[in-house]
Amino acid sequence: MLIQQLSSKPKSNITTAITAHGVGMVFKSDSQKFQALADINLSIPKGDIQLLMGPSGSGKTTLISILAGLMTPTAGNIQLLGEEITSMSRKQLTQFRRHNIGFVFQGFNLFPALTAAENVEVSLNIKGIGGRKGKNEAQMLLAAVGLEDKGKMLPKNLSGGQKQRVAIARALAGDPQLIMADEPTAALDSQSGQAIVEILHQLAKKRGATVLIVTHDPRIVNVADSILYLEDGRLQPPKFTPTG
To answer: Where is the ABC transporter domain (predicted)?
Structure first.
């Protein structure tokens, strides 16, 4: 792996990357209310790889969306890298996410008309890295996930595992300190899924980034430092324990 070759940001003294206090989420529809999350309290150390597991409908995607600043909770507060994001303005939050969070989606979310390299370049451009520097960094990011020879290929010509690697390379753009992944192995076979999780594991351990992965897959628990288990919108004792 070439992840260690990416340029590093100065290390901060913050030891806790993600903290949630009393987080709740209620969805309203007409006169009805649905409690998706209730009294979520968690603390994830910097540099850890953390799994968020639980049955379908337990609130995992809602929780990771809140932790990533994509949704605002109806109760509680979130701190990321020592900053309370729940008190930020929309503009401040957008800027914070842009520079500190990389998100990996279950469905890849690649632009079909752009090559693998161009998909990564778009993310770099949004973060103010363009021109020759952006092109060079895109190639370096693709090399970091083992796709140095796939930069000119369109997503339709890539396998599912390769598409997810492009998505990870895109998430790495700008060297964010937080990587969040929502079911990154769900659409992949066992071998491809294990390779994707290993890339994320290497990122956490070699880059000092913090990785939070939503997953149903018990086969990947041993790459985690710890596991959160969510059921009916509340954190419960985990059903699985890392042994590696």
So the answer is: 20-243
